[in-house]
């Protein structure tokens, strides 16, 4: 229906424009309007035959010779149809004294309808090509958007099982050593999984919920490692009504425990300091590590994925510094917050 409306608007504008042009030359509105309405069948014939037959079958397939020949044949037919319509409708009303001839008997009567038909058909082809190009560009952009969204979903699907595997390992170990503490793990893990499942696919989540999820994870790991590890978790500033892209910080925190306490038998440490500023969040994260962990940390699945998500969501607006040292691994992350 919208397409039909577009065609109607095109013809109304075209008729209005041509009537106005001819009116300047000869101020007789009804004459020019009658002429345009009488010539409309011929113009409809050549325009739509060109648009839906010559253009797709020949021009777009680069068969220019056949397209030109066929267009000339259609043009001659349209001229004869136009002359017939004008002779039957216009001449009896406005030029009754002139003898009716279906074939133009002078050059002016031949050139004028030829140009009229060529102009309207060319205009329609140009509009059609521009419209098709616009639709193709929209389709391409939509496809690119879908590809990006699918890629992000894939990154998240890689991230979640990776995190869950490590956490369940911790739960299993704690169940064997301290069943009472295991119940606390189940509660925190339930809250954490609820956040990942129901909030993790949202474009933005409340900052407070994101920080609660991080704290749950840190507490789970503190229970798991006990006195073997020193963990520091501090948050300064107010979350308020700020929002953030979910699950961007969790892979870094997870990585700190994976390559810190998990690899060092004693005296390991993890420190996470989060500062909430007016429109930014700053995370300073560090963990102890053994020297042989240096080649591995930078290329973990979780960290690679989260760096791609950071680039997609905050291109040019975030800061990320990763400092691998022989005995410690440091992360500095600064990302903008959405303030409601």
Automatic annotation (TrEMBL):
Pfam families recorded: His_kinase
Keyword set, alphabetical order: Coiled coil, Kinase, Membrane, Transferase, Transmembrane, Transmembrane helix
Transmembrane segments: 7-25, 37-55, 67-90, 110-130
Domain Signal transduction histidine kinase internal region: 151-228
Example of a GO MF term: kinase activity
Lineage: superkingdom: Bacteria
UniProt cross-references to InterPro entries, sorted A to Z: Bact_2-comp_sensor_kinase, HATPase_C_sf, Sig_transdc_His_kin_internal
Gene3D superfamilies assigned: Histidine kinase-like ATPase, C-terminal domain
Coiled-coil ranges from the UniProt annotation: 131-158
Protein name, entry field: Histidine kinase
Source organism of the structure: Agaribacillus aureus
């Amino acid at each position: 229906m919208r397409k039909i409306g577009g065609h109607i608007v095109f013809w109304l504008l075209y008729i209005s424009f041509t009537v106005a042009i001819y009116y300047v030359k000869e101020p007789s509105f009804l004459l020019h309007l009658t002429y345009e309405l009488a010539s409309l069948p011929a113009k409809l014939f050549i325009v739509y035959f060109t648009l839906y037959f010559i253009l797709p079958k020949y021009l777009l397939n680069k068969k220019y010779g056949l397209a030109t020949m066929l267009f000339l044949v259609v043009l001659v037919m349209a001229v004869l149809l136009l002359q017939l319509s004008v002779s039957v409708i216009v001449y009896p009303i406005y030029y009754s004294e002139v003898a009716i001839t279906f074939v133009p008997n002078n050059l002016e009567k031949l050139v004028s309808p030829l140009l009229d038909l060529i102009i309207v058909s060319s205009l329609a082809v140009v509009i059609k090509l521009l419209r098709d190009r616009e639709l193709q560009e929209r389709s391409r952009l939509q496809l690119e958007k879908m590809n990006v969204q699918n890629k992000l979903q894939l990154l998240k699907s890689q991230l979640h099982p990776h995190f869950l595997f490590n956490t369940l390992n911790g739960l299993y170990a704690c169940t064997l050593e301290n069943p009472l503490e295991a119940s606390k793990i189940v509660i925190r893990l339930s809250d954490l999984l609820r956040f990942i499942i129901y909030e993790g696919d949202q474009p933005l989540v409340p900052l407070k919920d994101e920080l609660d999820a991080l704290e749950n994870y840190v507490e789970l790991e503190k229970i798991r490692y006990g006195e073997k590890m020193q963990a520091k978790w501090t948050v300064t500033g107010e979350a308020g009504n700020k929002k953030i892209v979910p699950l961007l910080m969790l892979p870094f925190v997870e990585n700190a425990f994976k390559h810190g306490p998990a690899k060092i038998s004693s005296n390991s440490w993890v420190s996470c300091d989060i500062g909430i500023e007016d429109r930014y969040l700053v995370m300073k994260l560090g963990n102890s590590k053994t020297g042989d962990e240096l080649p591995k940390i930078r290329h973990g699945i979780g960290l690679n994925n989260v760096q791609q998500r950071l680039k997609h969501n905050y291109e040019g607006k975030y800061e990320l510094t990763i400092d691998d040292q022989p005995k410690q691994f440091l992360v500095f992350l600064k990302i903008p917050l959405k303030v409601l």
